[in-house]
Design goal:
The chain has 1 helix and 9 strands; from the N terminus they run αβββββββββ. Strands 1, 2, 3, 4, 5, 6, 7, 8 and 9 form a 9-stranded antiparallel sheet that branches. A hairpin with a 2-residue loop joins strand 7 and strand 8. It has 168 residues and is mainly beta.
Amino acid sequence: MSAAAGGLVGALAAILLAVPAAAAAEAEPRGVNPKDLTTKFDAIYERDERDGGLVVQGLALKYDRGLGGPWGLNLEAPVVRVSAAGRSEGGLGDTNLRLRWVANRDGFAYVAGAELVAPTASDDLLGRGRWQFNPAIGAVYAVSPTAFVFAGYKHVRSLGRDAQRTPV
């Protein structure tokens, strides 16, 4: 594990230790809708199979924290495995840090945010090898307490690359 990845894992562990005890169950599920600024921890598993035998699997550890008022922050650190054409690599992927602002008005929630992607992947196959700054905007409409519709736009902008890696 690289020094950057080790530092990231240490920082994530420190943040998780600060997670408050679970609150009593609420009548409405919280933290699923993008407008919710709650403090929570998620483990998100994804598997994608493509033509030619390419298989990408990931387990993203995601920590969300409401900062008070309309602000929220989240940190996402994925563990990724890529298998293709007789090669298989696994390890830490690129890390995402996101800041979000939410305004609730007339049944809608308007969301603006920014994402910083750090090239922390432990192998060229597991990340892009580039710093990114990705601003985003969107709107959320809650159809019911358990369903919502989201429309948004995120602009992906590379800022530079890790000189020690060959970008994919």
